[in-house]
């Protein structure tokens, strides 16, 4: 699995590129980065680029669930950019687990996703 984190807009936007299958160790990088940015800036905005993403191993799915519970109110907006129908469904499934506004965008609409996640 590959996860790349890029901070933008002075750290208020976290761009997360995921590919392959997430494993528990990926959350050991992701969670501290989010927690640090929340301490520095308050609520965050996240852009998930899920190009070539294939899901989670069981231990990573548990870490993802725990992250959602622990950071329920720390994220303001989540733009999810993907290429598969199940990724679109995942955006809908995640809505009860966060206060964030969540929108799914097809990979072809990545520029629109960035505009939406950045808008005031």
UniProtKB/TrEMBL annotation:
Pfam families: SpoIIAA-like
Transmembrane segments: none
InterPro entries, A to Z: SpoIIAA-like (IPR021866), SpoIIAA-like_sf (IPR038396), STAS_dom_sf (IPR036513)
Protein name: STAS/SEC14 domain-containing protein
The species this protein was found in: Sulfurimicrobium lacus
Phylogenetic classification of the source organism: Bacteria, Pseudomonadati, Pseudomonadota, Betaproteobacteria, Nitrosomonadales
